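Suppose a colleague, Dr. K., hands you the sequence of a protein chain of 206 amino acids and asks what its three-dimensional shape might be. Before reaching for any lab equipment, you can write down a predicted structure in token form. Begin with the sequence itself:
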Amino acid sequence: MRLYLASTSPARLATLRAAGVEPVLLSSGVDEEAVAAAAGPLDGPGLVSLLARAKAEAVVGPELDGVILGGDSAFELDGELYGKPHHPEVARERWLAQRGRTGFLHSGHWVIDHRGGVAGAAVGAVATASVTFASDLSDAEIDAYVATGEPLQVAGAFTIDSLGSAFITRVEGDPHAVVGLSVSTLRALLLELGIAWPTLWNLPRL
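The predicted structure, expressed as tokens, is then:
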């Protein structure tokens, strides 16, 4: 079974590869801010569900034969939602605010059954995990992390699978949700479509 990933996220790609799946990467080209603005106020799960669905639907085409996965993530702190900071000063401000605090990373998943080149049933779900940041994190460490550029293009301005991992002290819930793709959630969605997870395995194991 071929999996089409409507995302260019390196973390999602690495997560799937580690789980034995080499997806076909497709860029959705979705204007996330425009889609979110048109929808009006949404909570975290509602926002990531909307954007994951928009990304999956944007790549539908007769040349695809398999299943399409769209994904999106947002970080919530004190009821406020944060996506990618894009700018160093924004990333630094967020880290100063979340130092020693606990927030929630919401990851949306939308799967379209596109076997035979025809869009069929579609299912979606959100996985959420709480993330606690180190309270003894210094301003110098924050500045050094922001200077790497890593936090600029990820939801919440942090990663758990790379340089940012040293500054996270606790995760409760599915740890893959923090990366942006919950493998267990994806498996459950595929089961709803009558697709067994092992049929996606296409990478040799050592």
